[in-house]
């Protein structure tokens, strides 16, 4: 079965930027993007909840050639599937056969979208989204865990090779690059290896396209909607 068209539901500088970046790598601008204004609560509209009951971005709507639609709701699954769908772009080691490169690629893709995500998300929501329910101890715990356990593993890789899974850019870097940007915004990833990594990534035209809307993002929601968002937010 072949894909007719792809549409990404996106908000600047969030986890949907991972997928937008990869889509630019694979398809240049040949896909659709709809911004979901998260700070206005658009993710809770009945229309959007029907597409995505998790009320978040990204959501990837795949229109099939027969007119049918399939929606995906996890950035890691989207990155994994899209990179495999365009093997000629060389952004993922070949599937369907064992290789150490493939095992390492999947390991780091899932590390980025689950383990690292969990820490960064806790830091983010307790710093900027939970309002009076914020807990300083949670922020401190995950800051310390991220600095002491995650960063040394990434630094060791970046000291050996230019990218997370070797000297060649791969789809994992769309996840890790976004995670490092996210971590940096919260005062993490301070050692110079991270700035050097981001400098390498930012030379890519697809990176520039994916983050062209960075200026539309603020870490905290505007005061006018912050309380309503915190009241609705389920964490
Ligand atoms: N596991 C999901 C998480 C997506 C997610 O939580 N996105 C955040 C932005 S980074 C969001 O849209 N939050 C809005 C909300 O939860 O109301 C993924 O990686 O795709």
- Terminal CA distance reads 37 Å
Residues in helix, %: 40-55%
CATH class category of the largest domain: Mainly Alpha
What small-molecule ligands were found?
A: glutathione
The total strand number stands at 4
Query: Structural class, from helix and strand content?
Result: alpha+beta
Mean pLDDT: 96
Q: Which sheet architecture does the biggest sheet show?
A: 4 strands, mixed
How do the strands of the widest beta sheet line up side by side?
A: 2-1-3-4
The H-and-E topology, N to C, reads as EHEHEEHHHHHHH
Shape: globular
How much β-strand is present in the residues?
5-15%
CATH architectural designation of the largest domain: Up-down Bundle
CATH topology of the largest domain: Glutathione S-transferase Yfyf (Class Pi), Chain A, domain 2
Radius of gyration from the alpha-carbon trace, in angstroms: 18 Å
> How many discrete structural domains?
2
Q: What is the count of DSSP helices, taking H or I runs of 4+ residues?
A: 9
Note poorly predicted spans. none
Describe this structure in words.
With about 240 residues, this protein is of the alpha+beta class. It folds into 2 domains: about 5-90, 3-Layer(aba) Sandwich (Glutaredoxin); about 100-210, Glutathione S-transferase Yfyf (Class Pi), Chain A, domain 2. The chain has 9 helices and 4 strands, in the order E-H-E-H-E-E-H-H-H-H-H-H-H. It has a 4-stranded mixed sheet. Strand 1, helix 1 and strand 2 form a beta-alpha-beta unit. Helix 1 packs parallel to helix 3 (about 75-85), helix 1 packs antiparallel against helix 6 (about 170-185) and helix 4 (about 100-130) packs parallel to helix 6. The longest helix has 30 residues, at about 100-130. The radius of gyration is 18 Å and the shape is globular. The termini are far apart. Glutathione (GSH) binds near residues 43, 57 and 113. Glutathione (GSH) binds near residues 38 and 56.
């Amino acid at each position: 079965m072949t894909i007719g068209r792809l549409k990404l539901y996106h908000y600047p500088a969030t986890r949907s930027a991972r997928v937008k970046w990869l889509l630019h790598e694979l398809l240049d601008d040949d896909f659709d993007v709809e911004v979901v204004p998260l700070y206005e609560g658009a993710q809770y509209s009945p229309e959007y909840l029907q597409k995505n009951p998790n009320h978040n971005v990204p959501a990837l709507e795949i229109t099939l050639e027969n007119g049918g639609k399939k929606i995906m709701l996890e950035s890691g699954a989207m990155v994994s599937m899209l990179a495999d769908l365009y093997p000629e772009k060389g952004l993922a080691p070949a599937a369907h056969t064992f290789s150490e490169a493939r095992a390492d690629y999947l390991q780091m893709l899932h590390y980025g979208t689950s383990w690292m995500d969990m820490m960064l998300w806790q830091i983010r929501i307790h710093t900027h989204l939970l309002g009076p329910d914020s807990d300083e101890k949670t922020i401190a715990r995950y800051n310390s865990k991220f600095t002491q356990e995650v960063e040394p593993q990434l630094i060791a890789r970046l000291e050996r090779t230019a990218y997370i899974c070797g000297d060649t850019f791969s789809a994992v870097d769309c996840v890790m690059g976004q995670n490092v940007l996210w971590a940096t915004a919260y005062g993490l990833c301070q050692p110079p290896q991270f700035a050097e990594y981001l400098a390498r990534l930012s030379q890519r035209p697809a990176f520039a396209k994916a983050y062209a809307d960075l200026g539309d993002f603020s870490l905290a929601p505007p005061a006018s909607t912050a309380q309503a968002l915190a009241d609705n937010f389920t964490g």
